[in-house]
Design a protein that fits this description.
Blueprint: E1 4-7, E2 10-13, E3 18-24, E4 33-39, E5 45-52, E6 57-59, E7 67-72, E8 77-82, E9 91-99, E10 102-103, E11 111-116
Parallel strand pairs: 2-11
Antiparallel strand pairs: 1-3, 3-8, 4-5, 4-9, 5-6, 7-8, 9-10, 9-11
Amino acid sequence: QVQLVESGGGLVQTGGSLRLSCAASGSIGDINMMGWYRRAPGKQREVVATITSVGSTFYTDSVKGRFTISRNNAKNTMYLQMNSLKPDDTGVYYCNTVRWDMPSSPWGQGTQVTVSS
């Protein structure tokens, strides 16, 4: 199992942008799917976006057209570019590997994203 460390969160105003990074402790080249998840205040953790090793992506409806997931296998890092942020995007964002449509590595501490109105 790889250890994952999220970074890049912060406080931004509505309409602002953030770029989250997910650094893995080992190689991600052999990991087929990775994903970003978020836990909004008072809600369960939900998947935001996923990406496969060949670049196929999935986005939950609420972020389509605003967020872009990417990965750099050479740097063992995954990213989430978040544009046009809304207050509903507020939450703790986590990354994980995905196997059988389920997160498959230990959760990290996440990175807090707060969007003010």
